[in-house]
Amino acid sequence: MPKSKRNKQVTLSKTKKKGRDHKEGIVNSIKDASEKYSSVYVFSFENMRNQKLKEFREQLKSSSRFFLGSNKVMQVALGRSPSDEIRPGLYKLSKLLRGDAGMVFTNLDKGEVERLFNEFEEYDFARTGTIATEKVDLKEGPLEQFTHEMEPFLRKQGMPVRLNKGVVELVSDYVVCEEGKPLSPEAARILRLLGIKMATFRLHLICRWSPEEFELYIDGPDDSDVEGS
Predict the structure, then answer these.
(1) Which class is domain 20-125+200-228?
(2) What confidence category does residue 220 fall into, taking pLDDT thresholds of 50, 70 and 90?
(3) Where does the record place the region Disordered (predicted)?
(4) Using an 8 Å Cβ cutoff, are 104 and 68 in contact?
(5) What is the pTM of this model?
(6) Half-sphere exposure of 44 (CA within 13 A, CB side)
(7) Which uninterrupted H or E stretch holds 65?
(8) Which band of pLDDT confidence, cut at 50, 70 and 90, is reported for residue 23?
């Protein structure tokens, strides 16, 4: 039987932000999870919403464990090459931990994990810099959805408004945002006031590892290198 690599010492000298003890704790937790759970997935995310992710993690708490944070620390824990990986084939996952990504170790079967991730979708108000999914323009005239106290705030956001007999009125047509263009801070605030949600928090499976196989879900620039390594 091959010797377990789980207790192999690793260096964290290149990751220095949160303190050695904290990072070593994450590394050890990932090593423990690699033994406890039957499979592990790398996933990416867009428009992260921490509270929604917390709820999703809580839903899977009894069967799974999530890891998000420093990609470098997670890569060190998994191993970056066959020579330092903690289980055969896990180093391939470290090559795919890039950008907005995380891991989930789980005992759920493959079909259930795929269903849960594919169905996960949460709409929320967009933040500054988000690409607008539609054009929003307001026509000249009364804006009865706003109280008169809101008029100074709306004016500060660049909207051409005035009070007319206690009613907020737009004195000319106003484009809040254009489809396909990043939202300004002012546009993001106005869309929130209008109740228009343009951000969708999604999770995308990138790859799956189990002792029996390694599977890619999303093609990427280095996938041939990962498969061929």
Answers:
(1) alpha beta
(2) very low
(3) 1-25
(4) no
(5) 0.71
(6) 14
(7) strand 64-68
(8) confident
Helix (H, G, I), strand (E, B) or coil at 82: coil
Rounded distance, CA 91 to CA 226, Å? 9
Tell me which architecture the domain covering 136-196 has in CATH: Alpha-Beta Complex (3.90)
Positive or negative, the CA dihedral 93, 75, 52, 186 is negative
Measured distance CA(16)–CA(34) in Å, rounded: 24
Q: How many C-alpha atoms does 153 have within 13 Å on its Cβ side?
A: 9
Q: Which amino acid is at 85?
A: E
Domains of the chain, residue spans: 20-125+200-228, 136-196
**Distance (Å, whole) CA 106 – CA 174:** 50
Beta bridge partners, 168, equal: 163
Amino acid at 22: H
Q: For the segment 108-118, what is each residue's pLDDT rounded down to a tens digit?
A: 999 999 999 99
